[in-house]
Amino acid sequence: MFFERPDRGETAILVHIDLDSEQEQEDPVEFEELVLSAGAVPAIFIKGSRKQPDAGLFIGSGKLEEIKAAVEEHEAEVVLFNHALTPSQERNLEARLSCRVLDRTGLILDIFAQRARSYEGKLQVELAQLEHTVTRLKRGWTHLDRQKGGIGLRGAGETQLELDQRMIRQRIKSINASLIKVRGQRDQGRRSRKRADIPTVSLVGYTNAGKSSLFNVMANEHIYAADQLFATLDSTLRRIQVPNFGAAILADTVGFISHLPHKLVAAFRATLEESAEASLLLHVIDVANEQHKFFTEQVEEVLAEIGADEVPCLQVCNKIDLLDERAPHIERNQEGKPVRVWISARTGEGIDLLLSAIGELLGHDVVEYSLRLAPEQGRLRARLYAKGAVVHENVDADGLVCLDVRLPRKDLDRLLVDEGMTPSGTSAGL
What integer pLDDT is reported at residue 260 of this predicted model? Predict the structure, then answer.
C-alpha cells in the first residue's frame, strides 16, 4: 500500500508563503530540491506572504484562486506546500482545488517511502506514514452507518472512519512490536562490537553533504550515492582498517534536514542510535554550499535531540574540489588534536589525512610494544595479526618471533593477561 510508486513524475504546483509569525522560514530552494527528489515535475512555484496563516485554508482567498487557476492550466495532479498543514487545512484545500494536497512533512515521508530498502527502514517509514495519516482520515463513503442510539436507529456499529482508524492503530501496534525485535538484534550486534573492543565511527551530516560518497571511498564499497536529498536512508556498517590504529566499524546514516519532523526523528531513532553509541562522529559538511554554517547548526540540533552531542566529533569539510585553491589539510585545536579535515570524497583528495586524524582521535591511548614469542605462543601472534596491530616481525637467532606491535593499551593488556604474560605497564604511550 505505502510503497507503490507512480511510473512517471507527477505534475506539481509548488507553494511557499513567507509568514511574519514564523521566526525561522523554510528554504524555497531546498523545498524545490525535495520536490525533484520525490520525482515530481514542478510546473510553477507560487510564492506570497501573510502575517499569519488562515485557520481554515492556510492561504487567503486570492492566493487560493491563483493556485486553482494554475492547477487547471497545467493539469496538475498535486499541490505541494512548503509548510506544515493541519489535517483540516489539507482537507479544505483538496475540496477547493479538486486535487491532492501535501505539506512538507508528507513530501518528506513520500521520499522516505521511495528510498527505504532494508526491512527496518521500511518499517520505520510505514510507522511514520501511519502516524501522519491517522489524523488525516476522512469519511470517504457511507456504506456503514454511524453509531446511533434508540429503537430503530441502531446502525452497523462502526463507521468506515472508525474501522480505518482501528485498522491503522492495529498496524501501528504490530510495527512497533517488530521494531522492538529488530532493535534488539541491533543492540546485540552493538554489544558484540563493544566486547570485541572495535570502535564505531559514524558518518553524520546534512542530507546531500556527501556522506555516502565518503563511505564508498573509505570502505571500498559501492552503496547508492546521488546528488539528491535523502539518497541514503538505511544505516550501513562496514569494517575498515585505520592506519596506526587497527580495525574500526564505519557507519553511514540517514542525512538530516532543517526542521526535520519530530515523527521522523522518532521513527528513525533506532538507526540514529548508531550515532549516539559511536566512538567518534564524522560530521560531513558540504563547504561548497553557501548555507553550510546554517546546515551545520541544524545537524548539531538533531544530534543533541538524539543524545549524540557528547560523542567526540571530527568535522569533515567535503567538496573542496568545488572551491578555488583549497588544498586538503588538517586543522587542530590548542591541544594539537584534529578538529577539522578538508577533503574531497569525489576526487579522493585528503582521504589519507582523514584516516590519519581518525587514528589519532581513536588511538589517544595507543602504545608501541615489543614482544618475543616462543613457537607455542602462536595463538597470541594470530590474535595480534587479527587486530592489525603488528608493525614488524622477524625471527631471532634463538628461534623466537620478535614482534613490534601498535594498538590501544587496554587491548594489549587484555591479550597479554589472557596468555599469562605481564601487562604493558612500562610501555611508552603515544
Answer: 65
- Which residue has cell 486553482? 68
Q: Could you say which DSSP state residue 429 is in?
A: B
Q: Are residues 322 and 411 in the same domain?
A: no
> Is 26:258 a contact under the CB 8 Å cutoff?
yes
Whether 328 and 384 map to the same domain: the answer is no
How does DSSP assign 51-88, residue by residue? SS-BTTTBS-HHHHHHHHHHHHHHT-SEEEESSPPPHH
Stated as kind and residue range, the H or E segment containing 242 is: strand 236-242
Cα angle: 318, vertex 231, 249; to 5 degrees? 65
Confidence grade of residue 84 (pLDDT, cut at 50, 70, 90): confident
Q: By residue range, what is the domain housing residue 52?
A: 11-112
Task: Give the whole-angstrom CA distance, residue 380 versus residue 412.
Answer: 10
Single-letter amino acid, residue 412 = L
Q: Could you give the number of structural domains in the chain? A: 4
Task: Write down the pLDDT at residue 231.
Answer: 46
Handedness of CA 70, 71, 76, 82 (dihedral sign): positive
Nearest of 13, 10, 60 to residue 38 by alpha carbon: 10
pLDDT tens digits for 292-332?
A: 998 898 888 878 877 788 888 999 999 999 988 789 999 99
Tell me the whole-structure pTM to 2 decimals: 0.67
